[in-house]
Amino acid sequence: MPHDHSDHPHAVLPSDPALRVKALETILTRKGLIDPAALDEIIDTYQNKIGPQNGARVVARAWSDPAFKAALLADADPVLAELGFYGRQGEHMVVVENTPEQHNMVVCTLCSCYPWPLLGIPPGWYKSDAYRARAVREPRKVLADFGMTLPAETAVRVWDSTAEVRYLVLPMRPEGSEGLDEDALAALVSRDSMIGTALASTPDDGGYPS
Amino acid sequence: MSDCMELSAPEPAFLEPWHAQVFALTVSLNEAGRFSWADWVARFSQTLRRNGLSRELDGGADYFDAWLETLEAILAEAGNASAQEVELVRRDWEEAYLSTPHGEPVHLAR
Question: What is the value of pTM for the model shown?
Answer without folding.
Answer: 0.85
